[in-house]
Write a structure and sequence with these properties.
The complex is a heterodimer of chains A (225) and B (297).
Chain A lengths: L1 E10 L2 E11 L4 E5 L6 H8 L7 E6 L2 E2 L5 H8 L2 E4 L11 H5 L1 H5 L8 H10 L15 H13 L5 E5 L7 H16 L3 E5 L3 H10 L3 E6 L2 E4 L5
Parallel strand pairs in A: 3-8, 3-9, 6-7, 7-8
Antiparallel strand pairs in A: 1-2, 1-4, 4-5, 9-10
Helix pairs in contact in A: 6-7, 7-8
Chain B lengths: L1 H8 L2 H6 L4 H40 L1 E6 L3 H17 L3 E6 L2 H12 L12 E7 L6 H11 L3 E4 L2 H43 L1 H9 L4 H32 L26 H22 L4
Antiparallel strand pairs in B: 1-3, 1-4, 2-3
Helix pairs in contact in B: 3-7, 3-9, 4-6, 7-9, 7-10, 9-10
């Protein structure tokens, strides 16, 4: 699905990540942890091609990322749902329109998907807020809306970058349960977080691998928990 | 054609994604209107000078004059000889000697109406009208020199050439002005499109991240700028045409500036200005959008 082979990423003259080799299998659940600035977000950006590796090979759905045309990148991104830490909403659109944005840009008839959008909004508990603008919502509501947007295209993999970074513990658990639910539906999930408590709770609900970015490279950290 | 229809029809959902930018929208319409207004005048100038050049060219080219200056005793003989030469010259349709009254009228602007033409040693004038094929000017000159040494052929080239050349230059300047207006419009639309793209950097970034193709993002901007330009150019063209129509009319022989305007089917040409404006905007915005999008991952 997504494969890294000896991937390095340099920024500002120094290596931020190096020697990353990893294969994300369908239906897998990974936590990515490490201190702030370790490169968790960079790793996720390499996964959805917002960044290109300095060396090594990144394969997305069997195709090498560096060989993809811009249209192929766009096409691949429709199969990857991303939950950004800062949500990345368009503030002039309603929450429902933001959730439907991947459908709109893919040229799908949004009117035909109204029922899906409604059930998705209900699933994330935002049925009553769907006509509100993103700035009118709380951090937790925004994160749940971002998750709804990430899954609207029925992606194969979901990447979440610190999805619980700005929410309380109760909301963190709620978000986690949504991600676990998605994983049980067969989606691969990668969650970048530094919240070890969340990882411990998740390990009791789902079979997850924990990866730690340490010394610029990935290490399996399951034994540390 | 399908792309054009899709552009005109638009996509309300997609249009919602890129928020309209009020100031750039108004400026684009205003700029397009001003450019179209100027373009109407440049077109009118071009067409007017074109008509003028053609008129001068055809009216003066088909006639010439032979002036016979000789002692009184030889004047009649040389006139007859010249007429005989003309009769035998291929390309000469007809010729006639200008009468005293006609000569008096020609000289009237300089000497007044009471000029005693018969008392003055005024040369004899023969008007020559040529066929559409024309005659060999140099050949006729040589034969006249041999048969009627006092005859001088004036084919009006001396007067016609600079006048026609000036009119042609003016016509060319009109087309250059139209080209410059189109280029300026393209430059201004490009700047406006880049400003709009820059103002919508967040929208572009987010839509790319959720899987939008470059063509999808570009289309939202291209459609908006093309339609705004077409609207502004239509307004500017309409005002320009009204202004041209309101210019005082002048006789055909009037100074060319008072003859500025459109005639007959030429009134349909300005209709092309909004269409060409829209095409320029389409190309300029698309190029600007795709260039900016290359910098977005």
């Amino acid at each position: 699905m997504i494969e890294f082979d000896k991937v390095a990423y340099s920024y500002g003259g120094g290596n931020l990540l190096s020697g990353l080799s990893l294969r994300l299998q369908p239906g897998s659940f990974h936590f990515l942890t490490g201190p702030s600035g370790a490169g968790k977000s960079t790793f996720l950006k390499l996964c959805y091609m917002e960044l290109a590796p300095s060396s090594g090979m990144v394969q997305i759905f069997g195709q090498e990322a560096r060989d993809m045309t811009r249209d192929q990148v766009a096409q691949a991104r429709r199969r990857i749902g991303v939950v950004h830490q800062d949500c990345q909403f368009l503030d002039h659109l309603s929450l429902r329109e933001n959730v439907a944005l991947p459908l709109t840009v893919a040229g799908r008839d949004v009117a035909e998907s109204e029922a899906d959008i409604a059930s998705l909004m209900e699933w994330v508990g935002l049925k009553d807020q769907q006509e509100q603008r993103p700035p009118e919502l709380s951090g937790g509501e925004r994160q749940r809306a971002a998750l709804a947007r990430a899954v609207i295209m029925d992606p194969d993999i979901i990447l979440a970058d610190e999805p619980t970074g700005n929410v309380d513990w109760e909301m963190s658990q709620r978000l986690l349960s949504l991600l676990v639910e998605l994983n049980k539906l067969g989606k691969s999930v990668v969650v970048a977080t530094h919240d070890m408590n969340l990882i411990r709770v998740a390990k009791s609900q789902v079979s997850a691998r924990v990866l730690r970015i340490k010394d610029r490279t990935l290490q399996l950290a399951g034994a540390d928990l | 054609m399908r792309a054009l229809l899709s552009l005109l029809r638009g996509d309300p959902e997609a249009d919602r994604v890129v928020p309209p930018t009020g100031v750039t929208a108004s400026l684009t319409v205003l700029t397009a209107a001003a450019m179209a207004f100027l373009c109407v005048f440049a077109l009118a100038l071009s067409l007017a000078t074109s008509r003028l050049a053609e008129r001068w060219d055809s009216e003066l080219a088909r006639s010439s004059t032979i002036r016979i200056s000789a002692p009184a005793a030889e004047l009649e003989e040389q006139t007859r000889a010249a007429q005989e030469v003309l009769r035998l010259t291929p390309g000469v349709a007809r010729s006639r000697i200008l009468g005293e009254e006609e000569q008096r009228l020609l000289l009237e602007p300089w000497f007044g109406p009471d000029l005693p033409v018969d008392a003055l040693p005024i040369p004899r004038l023969i008007e020559v009208i040529e066929t559409t094929e024309g005659y060999d000017v140099e050949g006729l000159r040589l034969r006249l020199a041999a048969e009627a040494p006092g005859a001088v052929l004036d084919d009006h080239t001396r007067w016609r050439r600079p006048l026609v050349e000036a009119a042609n230059r003016l016509r060319l300047l009109g087309w250059v002005a139209i080209g410059l207006i189109a280029a300026s419009t393209a430059a201004m639309i490009t700047l406006a499109a880049r400003a709009a793209l820059s103002a919508n950097a967040q929208v572009i970034s987010v839509t790319r991240l959720v899987g939008a193709r470059d063509s999808y993002i570009a289309r939202a901007f291209v459609r908006r700028f093309t339609l705004r330009t077409a609207l502004g150019a239509t307004i500017g063209t309409a005002i320009g045409m009204l202004a041209i129509a309101a210019l005082p009319s002048a006789a055909e022989e009037g100074a060319f500036l008072t003859g500025l305007g459109f005639q007959g089917a030429h009134w349909l040409l300005p209709v092309l200005i909004p269409i060409l404006g829209a095409v320029v905007a389409f190309i300029a915005t698309r190029a600007a959008a795709l260039s900016v999008l290359k910098g977005v991952t």
